[in-house]
């Protein structure tokens, strides 16, 4: 009994203590609640005070401006929503302009979300990569969420609560005045680095609209150049764009049609491998609800929202209509996809104070006052779906100098209007229209199609009826098929400028035709069927852009024309031979020197060099196709033996035997060729251009591809490196074998040949290399020189790669090169005492070079 009383007493004490503790906890909790209520009341009072003092702008986010401080009032309904930060360059100093950075260029986009944290009295900003998703309800969805989580990039103290506590107010100066780089890191984005000088930077303006905020700032830094500190101030525009809650249904890419893409990975419980896809970049074009039935019947209807481009008001007036025409030329392509009036070009409305060319509500063809000769057509993409939400063509003023040079050297022989130092406005306008169409094509998501020029038979480029019917020089304006250099005087060809072609209409239809399906996976059979309808037709073939220094598939090259580059280039040489004797007459101006003649001479030389590069690609070339199950074509097809042999003969005829029509011309007496202010002597030009061709032809990567073809097809069906070396040797050492004195250019050619072999053989062991078929560098199409500052492209397209291993110690490429060196050594030693003094000195030089290279001394 005593024990029972003791137990009851103990329990009573415990209960009492618990009650006391709970009472204390309750009082503490009450105090915290009272404190929180007081804080909320205080913050509401603060909100009232802010509103009284502030200039208020209503929109997606309410903007409160108090003197030099800027506040965002963010509604709870925006918390967790996807917003896209889009930064643009709005103004640059001379130093950056000269380096290739200009107004309209975009950088450092990121997807962000705002989250309210009442416990810590903060608003967090996170960013995440939306390129991964999981099926809703699947078990793996939780793992996807955990393994691809958001990252915090910024926070803001909550300054006040809005009415009914359904919004919060944060001060945002620090992310726009240079204090923090979370939203706008301009100098690192252009690879310049440097720290923002806050005292020399400021917010210029903040504007808000129903679905975006636009903030302009001045960002100042300095860099040291040659020991001197150079101040740099860039004006930037930061857009904060509200993305739709439901992303556009994506369309899956196919490497048989060339579009920029965004990668995506799908996870679900039933799969045994992650489904990896790429989303095509395209605008959201949909038929109006009342027109869906008409559209389904094949009628052409207007889209819910057309694509509208505005012309920068700073564009010279004489070019505006042709730039618009270049945009509107795409109407026919979109009509092929079932949409009329899908593309509109217009001037900026007069008196519209809200219009800003850096505002992502507007797609603008921006005109850049710059000495750069370039143009580009990037776009802003919703990374969740590939939807293009805005695009800007950046048009450098000096691109016209490049157009003039191409037109003059490529069409002067057949068009007298192209021969002078200045084109008529009408003539230049037609070229500007072509550039406009090409760049706008990029803003629709189209990549370069460097295989489009190959679709035209070379001789058909001399046909007035064919070029008139097919339009220009290729099946796609997205090729670098510039102007028709194949057509000859008397052919009567007048359609010499690239135009939107068969492939362009097909590609736009493939990407933009609206399909009434729920998922992109359901579209795949239809999309594949559209491609298979044209299988084997070169007019619909897509050829990826490759590294122009070493293209693997010779069908997809920059600046070439026709399906037979050897024949095309021989026609081109015939036209160059017509230009050279007339260079002075075409460029002369009373009282002026011969600078223009020098520039035209350099343009001819560059064209001659370009022809050599096109032909070289055939040697060791591989036609690379994209077959799918059921296709008859093979994936890898070596260039036919005779085409390769013919290409080497072209190089022998036009490059390795130095052409007298070019280097012996009278124009050299008046001017050397001039490029970027430098004058080049004939011997220097011939030596350097020829050497570059030798080195390109004889490099190990090319020889290894030739050996690969031999391993695949057998020696009898291939043009082998041994045969190539023999073909070259028999020509350039013909005079030596005959015991003749060697001319200056003959000695130069032999030295170039031997040195190219030696230099390319000097690496004992080549590292494993992966060769990309194209570098997808960006959408800069007309660059005349490399920009010093680069903004990396947004598109993360997967590069198709081919893998080669050189391994010098066991490479057949080394064997054939050493064999040639020994062959020449034997010849030089047998002829060292023959010929004039220059020839004998030359042979002694060859002997020393070869023995040193082979470690024979």
From TrEMBL:
<keyword id="KW-0378">Hydrolase</keyword>
<keyword id="KW-0645">Protease</keyword>
<dbReference type="InterPro" id="IPR033413">
    <property type="entry name" value="DUF5117"/>
</dbReference>
<protein>
    <submittedName>
        <fullName>Zinc-dependent metalloprotease</fullName>
    </submittedName>
</protein>
<dbReference type="Pfam" id="PF17162">
    <property type="entry name" value="DUF5118"/>
</dbReference>
<feature type="region of interest" description="Disordered">
    <location>
        <begin position="541"/>
        <end position="560"/>
    </location>
</feature>
<feature type="domain" description="DUF5118">
    <location>
        <begin position="46"/>
        <end position="91"/>
    </location>
</feature>
<feature type="domain" description="DUF5117">
    <location>
        <begin position="104"/>
        <end position="288"/>
    </location>
</feature>
<dbReference type="Pfam" id="PF17148">
    <property type="entry name" value="DUF5117"/>
</dbReference>
<dbReference type="GO" id="GO:0008237">
    <property type="term" value="F:metallopeptidase activity"/>
</dbReference>
<dbReference type="InterPro" id="IPR033428">
    <property type="entry name" value="DUF5118"/>
</dbReference>
<feature type="domain" description="EcxA zinc-binding">
    <location>
        <begin position="422"/>
        <end position="737"/>
    </location>
</feature>
<feature type="compositionally biased region" description="Basic and acidic residues">
    <location>
        <begin position="546"/>
        <end position="558"/>
    </location>
</feature>
<keyword id="KW-0482">Metalloprotease</keyword>
<dbReference type="InterPro" id="IPR032534">
    <property type="entry name" value="EcxA_zinc-bd"/>
</dbReference>
<dbReference type="InterPro" id="IPR034032">
    <property type="entry name" value="Zn_MMP-like_bac"/>
</dbReference>
<dbReference type="Pfam" id="PF16313">
    <property type="entry name" value="DUF4953"/>
</dbReference>
């Amino acid at each position: 009994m005593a024990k029972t009383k003791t137990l009851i007493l103990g329990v009573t004490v415990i209960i009492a203590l618990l009650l006391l503790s709970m009472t204390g906890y309750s009082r503490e909790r009450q105090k915290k609640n009272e404190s929180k209520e007081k804080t909320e009341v205080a913050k509401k009072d603060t909100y009232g005070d802010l509103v009284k003092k502030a200039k208020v702008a209503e929109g997606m986010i309410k903007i409160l401006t108090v003197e030099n401080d800027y506040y965002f009032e963010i509604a709870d309904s925006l918390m967790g929503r996807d917003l896209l930060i889009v930064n643009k360059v709005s103004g640059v100093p001379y130093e950056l302009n000269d380096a290739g950075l200009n107004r309209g260029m975009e950088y450092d986009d990121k997807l962000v979300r705002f989250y309210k944290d009442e416990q810590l009295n903060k608003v967090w900003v996170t960013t995440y990569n939306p390129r991964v998703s999981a099926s809703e309800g699947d078990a793996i969805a939780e793992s996807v969420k955990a393994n691809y989580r958001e990252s915090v990039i910024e926070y803001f103290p909550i300054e006040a609560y809005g009415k009914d506590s359904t919004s919060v107010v944060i001060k945002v100066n620090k992310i726009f005045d240079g204090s923090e780089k979370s939203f706008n890191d301009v100098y690192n984005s252009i690879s310049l680095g440097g720290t923002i000088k806050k005292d020399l930077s400021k917010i210029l303006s903040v504007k808000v609209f129903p679905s975006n905020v636009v903030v302009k700032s001045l960002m100042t830094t300095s860099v040291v150049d040659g020991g001197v500190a150079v101040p740099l101030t860039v004006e930037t525009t930061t857009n904060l764009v509200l993305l739709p809650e439901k992303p556009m249904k994506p369309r899956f890419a196919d490497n048989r049609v060339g579009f920029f893409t965004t990668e995506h990975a799908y996870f679900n419980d039933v799969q045994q491998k992650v489904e990896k896809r790429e989303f095509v970049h395209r605008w959201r074009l949909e038929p109006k609800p009342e027109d869906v039935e008409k559209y389904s019947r094949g009628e052409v209807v207007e889209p819910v929202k057309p694509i509208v481009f505005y012309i920068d008001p700073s564009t010279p007036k004489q070019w505006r209509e042709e730039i618009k025409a270049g945009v509107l030329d795409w109407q026919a392509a979109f009509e092929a996809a079932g949409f009329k009036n899908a593309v509109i070009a217009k001037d900026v409305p007069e008196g519209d104070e809200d219009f800003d060319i850096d505002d992502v509500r507007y797609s603008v063809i921006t005109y850049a006052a710059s000495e750069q000769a370039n143009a580009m057509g990037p776009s802003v993409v919703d990374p969740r779906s590939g939807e293009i939400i805005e695009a800007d063509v950046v048009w450098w003023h000096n691109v016209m100098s490049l157009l003039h040079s191409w037109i003059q050297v490529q069409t002067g022989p057949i068009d007298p209007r192209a021969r002078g130092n200045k084109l008529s406005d009408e003539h230049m306008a037609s070229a500007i229209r072509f550039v406009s169409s090409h760049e706008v094509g990029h803003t629709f998501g189209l990549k370069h199609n460097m295989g489009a020029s190959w679709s035209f038979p070379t001789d058909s480029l001399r046909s007035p009826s064919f070029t008139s019917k097919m339009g220009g020089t290729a099946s796609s304006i997205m090729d670098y098929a510039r102007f028709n250099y194949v057509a000859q005087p008397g052919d009567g060809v007048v359609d010499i400028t690239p135009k939107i072609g068969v492939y362009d209409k097909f590609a736009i239809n493939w990407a933009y035709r609206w399909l009434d399906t729920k998922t992109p996976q359901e579209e795949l059979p239809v999309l594949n069927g559209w491609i298979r309808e044209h299988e084997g037709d070169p007019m619909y073939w897509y050829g990826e852009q490759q590294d122009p220094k070493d293209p693997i598939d010779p069908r997809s090259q920059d600046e070439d024309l026709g399906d037979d580059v050897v024949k095309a280039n021989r026609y081109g040489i015939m036209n160059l031979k017509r230009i050279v004797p007339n260079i002075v007459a075409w460029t002369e101006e009373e009282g002026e020197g011969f600078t223009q003649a020098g520039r035209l001479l350099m343009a001819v030389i560059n064209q001659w060099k370009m022809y050599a590069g096109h032909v070289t690609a055939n040697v060791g070339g591989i036609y690379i196709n994209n077959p799918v199950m059921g296709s008859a074509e093979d994936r890898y097809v070596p260039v036919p033996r005779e085409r390769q042999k013919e290409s080497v003969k072209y190089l022998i005829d036009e490059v390795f035997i130095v052409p007298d029509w070019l280097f012996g011309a009278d124009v050299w007496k008046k001017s050397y060729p001039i490029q970027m202010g430098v004058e080049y002597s004939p011997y220097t030009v011939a030596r350097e251009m020829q050497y570059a061709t030798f080195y390109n032809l004889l490099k190990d990567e090319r020889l290894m591809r030739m050996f690969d073809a031999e391993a695949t097809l057998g020696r009898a069906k291939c043009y082998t490196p041994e045969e190539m070396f023999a073909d070259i040797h028999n020509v350039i050492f013909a005079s030596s074998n005959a015991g003749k004195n060697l001319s200056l250019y003959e000695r130069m050619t032999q030295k170039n040949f031997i040195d190219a072999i030696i230099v390319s053989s000097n690496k004992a062991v080549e590292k494993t290399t992966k060769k990309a078929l194209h570098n997808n560098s960006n959408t800069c199409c007309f660059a005349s020189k490399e920009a010093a500052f680069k903004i990396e492209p947004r598109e993360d397209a997967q590069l198709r790669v081919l893998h080669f291993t050189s391994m010098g110690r066991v490479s057949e490429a080394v064997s054939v090169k050493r064999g040639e060196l020994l062959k020449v050594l034997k010849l030089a030693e047998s002829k060292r005492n023959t010929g004039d003094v220059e020839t004998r000195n030359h042979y002694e030089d060859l002997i020393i070079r070869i023995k040193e290279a082979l470690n024979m001394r």
